[in-house]
User: What shape does this take?
Amino acid sequence: MEALYAIKGRPREKAIALLVADPDDVDRLATAVPESARILAERYWPGGLTLVLRSAADPTTTVALRMPDHAIPLRLIGEVGSPLATTSANRSAAASPRTADDVLAQLPSGYPLLIDGGPCPGGVDSTVVDLTRSPARILRPGAISRKAIEAVTGPVDRP
Assistant: This one.
């Protein structure tokens, strides 16, 4: 985790999401999961949606969970046997890369391996929704529209 923060130049107050390979992982990693989280995961996973929920390890903190829509990270998660702490491969606050060359342009070194799985589909960051509060709050707009989120959660607070 320390290396990830250092390579990206990411502020420590910005948490690192966990990538999961199965929606059922939510129940292992989060507690007090609202029904709206389950519906959103069913509709938009795998895909561009990150859910912020109460951590099962420590309910006074949160955990951000996302199921990627790409075979390589899904297979890595399966091979490792646990969720992966990860983030986009860019400098903090810079544009998200779509290709391995984009990654190398921003992050030329500091990590042992770069897997080139071809261009990332979509090219839009995930929508991050905090479901630990009511009303829910969109922390980062992205691939899933506010309208689509509100169709499940009802009105949401703006970031």
